[in-house]
Amino acid sequence: MIALSLAEIAEVVGGQTHDIPDPSVQVTGPVVRDSREVEPGSLFVAFVGEHVDGHDFADAVVEAGAVALLASRPVGVPAIVVDDVQSALGALARHVVRRLGATLVALTGSAGKTSTKDLIAQVLARKAPTVFTPGSFNNEIGLPLTALSATDETKFLVLEMGARGIGHIRYLTDLTPPQIGLVLNVGTAHIGEFGGREQIAQAKGELVEALPENGTAILNADDPLVRAMASRTKAKVILFGESGEADVRAENVRLTDSGQPAFSLHTPSGCSEVTMRLYGEHHVSNALAAAAVAHELGMSADEIATALSEAGSLSRWRMEVTERPDGVTIVNDAYNANPESMRAALRALAAMGKGRRTWAVLGKMAELGDEALAEHDAVGRLAVRLNVGKLVAVGGREASWLQLGAYNEGSWGEESVHVSDAQAAVDLLRSELRTGDVVLVKASRSVGLESVAQALIETGAEGEVAAR
After folding, report:
1. Strands 68-71 and 261-267
2. What pLDDT band is residue 219 in, cutting at 50, 70 and 90?
3. Secondary structure string (H, E, C) spanning 367-382
4. Is the model's pLDDT at 444 over the cut of 80?
5. Which conformational region is residue 130 in: left (phi greater than 0), alpha (psi within -120 to 50 degrees), or beta?
6. Per the confidence metrics, is the pTM higher than 0.90?
7. Buried b (16+ CB within 10 A) or exposed e, 21-50
8. How far apart, in whole angstroms, are the C-alpha atoms of residue 200 and residue 252?
9. How far apart are CA 186 and CA 358, in angstroms?
10. Edge-to-edge, what's the strand order for the sheet holding 320-323?
11. Could you give the CA distance from residue 226 to residue 224 in angstroms, rounded to a whole number?
12. Largest Cα–Cα distance in the chain?
């Protein structure tokens, strides 16, 4: 964070100082909510959670170097006490962002936010110092913490914005007003909470409504609900996609033999070839979104293409590919799942597995409401159409719908199997995997299928599965 004294912070957040001998002492380290992340000069934000109360760590964080806590009650060590810690954190972020000289880029969408944010960050970092959201730290707590990690040297601040209802993105944009706003897509993630895609579009479009007149809205030309958001902003609009009307577009899209996308990148400033290190054709749209941001910020087509071709995955469990010594490939995409990302992952598996036996280890997609049965059934059917070798559906009711969809799609569906839990999936795969197999693992975060991927990776490292 930019250096601020405890007295300044107290004034910004409307708090009272307690047990602070010298209010002129500055916070020079990071603002954190996890006691394990405290460094000398830190400000520790004490949240009261369902199971853990941050105030209980007061002595420990000060001993570790925190200069004070942002707290809701006095704790016997230096603290700035406020009525609402979350609101105070947001106020501090708003104050710091307005003092920065950085260009703020915000993005949202139903799928691909984190992968796209990681691409944008890696591309822009070639131009100037860039701070960006770690992982999916995209809510009313994670976003201000990310913003507060910027310093005077930061030139680009890239913030992922999530939403679970109308007004959520409006709140986040008030904390961190963007200059560039990017909307990727409107899908069915969290449709059970929103009530429909139109409501999701209403919520996502709050990002472009927040842009200033001299700002830029970057919209997906291939998604009608996103493209229609052009009417909701007074900012300049740039379109990206495979549509011929897109300002930044891809042509000659193809997949390499290993399932990595390649395409010709076209921007208003020129054209260049891209071959990505990431897996799956869905990353083409993500890359175009990143390219549109970079173009708007003055990078050439060649610079953008080089950066996209060299960019990797910065966030765990998102199409994370591990090649085992015995020739088995594990694709860990278990961080989260919705119908759009599930379809994309299955298509990537099919591309990667040409000439090899493929396995789709899939679990529940959460928060689909009344659409849950139909969407799980459709994913099971798609696995059959893509000729995935075997579907392993893991879990309860939703997994049974996956398996039933595969079975009803055709005779191949008899190759699908429904197992009760992650350990059962591991046991099955350990007994049946053979050299050359490709295994995709994917479900919503709550299912915890990353444990399956990790167990299979460790099995390969231990050499327990022999070539068959």
Report:
1. unpaired
2. very high
3. CCHHHHHHHHHHHHHH
4. yes
5. beta
6. no
7. eebeebbbbbbbbebeebeebbbbbbbeee
8. 31
9. 30
10. 320-323, 329-332, 438-442, 358-362, 390-394, 417-419
11. 5
12. 76
Percent of the chain with pLDDT over 70: 96
Q: Letter for the amino acid at 190?
A: H
CA 335 to chain centre: 9
| Residue pLDDT, tens place only, 138-185 | 999 999 999 999 999 999 999 999 988 899 999 999 999 999 999 999
What is the model's pLDDT at position 364?
97
Secondary structure (3-state) at 6: helix
Name the residue with tokens 């050359």: 436
> Which single residue is written with the structure tokens 């429904």?
418
SS3 category, 267? strand
Rounded distance between C-alpha atoms, residue 267 and residue 342, angstroms? 30
* DSSP assigned state of 467: P
* Mean pLDDT of the 119-145 span: 95
Kindly report the backbone phi and psi dihedral angles of residue 270, in degrees, each rounded to the nearest multiple of 5, phi listed first: 145, -175
* Cα–Cα distance for residue pair 99/176, rounded to 1 Å: 11
- Residue pair 274/305 in contact (Cβ under 8 Å)? The answer is yes
CA distances from 359 to 134, 144, 342, 424 (A): 30, 40, 14, 15
Please give the helix or strand (H or E) that residue 308 lies within, else none. Answer: helix 301-310
* Phi and psi, residue 16, nearest 5°: -110, 135
**453/155 Cα distance (integer angstroms):** 38
Cα angle: 168, vertex 115, 310; to 5 degrees: 150
Task: Determine contact, residues 218/199, Cβ cutoff 8 Å.
Answer: no
CA gap 350, 389 in Å, rounded: 9
| For residues 198-212, average pLDDT | 96
> Read out DSSP for 86-136?
HHHHHHHHHHHHHH--PEEEEEE-SS-HHHHHHHHHHHHTTTS-EEE--TT
pLDDT value of position 461 = 58
- Give residue 139's identity as a one-letter amino acid code: N
Tokens of 377: 């059934």
